[in-house]
Give the backbone structure.
Amino acid sequence: MANQPLSLGCEVNGVPFPVVTWSKDNKIMTEAPGISFQSAGQGLRFHRIRKDDSGSYTCRAVNRAGEAHRTYNILVFVPPTIYGAGSVQDLTAREGTEVELQCRVSGLPKPQVQWTKDGQPLTPGDSTLQLVEEEQILRLNGTKLSHQGRYQCLAFNHAGQQVKDFNLKILTPPTVWSSNETTTVASLLHGSVVLKCEAKGSPPPSITWFKDKRPIVSSSRASYRDSGRSLQLN
């Protein structure tokens, strides 16, 4: 696994005592920062192995009587790294539009990616959801209010795992119950009456009342209730 120490052994004997050399991918090696030979070449030590250290390593022992060799094939596992992981990514989309959640990941072996919404696996077969580019992108087509929520991608391989969180907010236009209708309300003289305006939307809409096309300012005679969802006339 990456960033861990690793030692390769090459115990030899012979008369005269053999000279030991190491090669990587058929190229002779020399000591370098983080890599050292031990016991006259009978050991090769990586102080912190890296992804670039993957390859084929051969130790070759040679004397006047002949030679022998031993080969190691090293594959360094690297835990997944997701671009932008560590903080929640906030996304906003209008209802009916397309939005993409990106989970760009690297690692070795190539990580697998899984998605959840509000802690539950995404429902297979939903035509509005598409996983593309090896599931590193979640595409939502024709977004609707039910798409709003907390999404998480999980990338994992044999070396570890990492997650990235998304908070998706869907904007929907205001709707008013019984809109485009005119309601007649009767009241006793000097009595009070309450007018209703049941509106919804995301985010919750701001409500303004009008009389004869002029906005009504809250006062002792006309007061807004419940964030404007009702108007009380005294």
Q: What stands out?
A: The domain at 79-173 is CATH 2.60.40.10 (Immunoglobulin-like). The chain has a mean pLDDT of 90. The chain has no helices and 23 strands. The CA atoms of residues 17 and 97 lie 75 Å apart.
